[in-house]
């Protein structure tokens, strides 16, 4: 309830006046806060956000800690995705004044109990596959299947990523998002659907949440 009230007050104070915020922007590769420079948000519907991303592979775990301008629809949006090689969890918190500091995001609790859903699973860097041979068994509250396509620029290196797997409902909640921080830019398309038999159904969404968690994997390929 408190976060909802804060969002309403922000919309009343800033969006109606046409003013955008100034927010800290930085990117760190750990689970501890980063610091950077103050930047003007590109949209009046942007707020100051902090995103923590944890990605687990077979024998490794990596973190991203990102502070930037985010669309207000991203606030308090915790989600997780399981794919062919990784499981990624993300949490986002927001604040609504110039150069504010958000609360530290708390990642969703991991649940490895199989829930009976299986989703086509892949990670590709050239194009989205037509013939998907692998399937991931979904766990916990990952009750949707998801397909991503993302264009990422990290420093002077650009990469495309195509990803499929299991997702929580919150993963599909945001219709559009992107991020531009110090040395990083990401734009994403995503399609969520209910199961392996529904690959061509469901609306198309655009969102950020878990792709940044795959950066370590993608740029290492």
From TrEMBL:
SUPFAM superfamilies referenced in this protein's UniProt entry, alphabetically: Snake toxin-like
PROSITE patterns the UniProt entry points to: LY6_UPAR
Organism: Ranitomeya imitator
InterPro entries: CD59_antigen_CS, CNF-like_PLA2_Inhibitor, LY6_UPA_recep-like, Snake_toxin-like_sf
Compartment(s) where it occurs, according to its Swiss-Prot or TrEMBL record: Secreted
Main location: secreted
Keyword terms of this UniProt record: Secreted, Signal
Ranges of residues in domain UPAR/Ly6: 19-101
Annotated protein name in UniProt: UPAR/Ly6 domain-containing protein
Signal peptide (from-to): 1-20
This protein's record includes keyword Zinc-finger: no
Domain of life from the UniProt record: Eukaryota
Coiled-coil boundaries: none
Keyword Ubl conjugation (UniProt): no
């Amino acid at each position: 309830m408190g976060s909802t009230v804060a969002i309403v007050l922000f919309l009343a104070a800033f969006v109606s006046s046409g003013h955008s915020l100034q927010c800290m922007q930085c990117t760190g590769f750990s689970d501890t806060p980063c610091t950077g420079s103050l930047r003007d948000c590109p949209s009046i519907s942007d707020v100051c956000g902090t995103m923590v991303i944890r990605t687990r592979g077979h024998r490794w775990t990596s973190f991203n800690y990102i502070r930037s301008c985010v669309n207000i629809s991203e606030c308090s949006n915790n989600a997780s995705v399981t794919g062919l090689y990784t499981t990624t969890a993300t949490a986002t918190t927001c604040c609504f004044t110039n150069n504010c500091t958000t609360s530290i995001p708390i990642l969703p609790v991991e649940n490895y109990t199989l829930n009976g859903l299986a989703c086509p699973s892949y990670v590709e860097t050239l194009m989205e596959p037509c013939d998907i041979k692998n399937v991931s068994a979904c766990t916990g509250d990952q009750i949707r299947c998801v397909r991503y396509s993302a264009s990422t620029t990290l420093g002077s290196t650009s990469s495309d990523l195509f990803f499929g797997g299991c997702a929580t409902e919150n993963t599909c909640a945001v219709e559009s998002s992107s991020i531009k921080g110090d040395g990083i830019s990401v734009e994403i398309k995503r399609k969520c659907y209910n199961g392996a038999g529904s690959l061509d159904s469901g609306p198309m969404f655009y969102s950020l949440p878990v792709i940044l968690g795959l950066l370590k994997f993608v740029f290492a390929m």
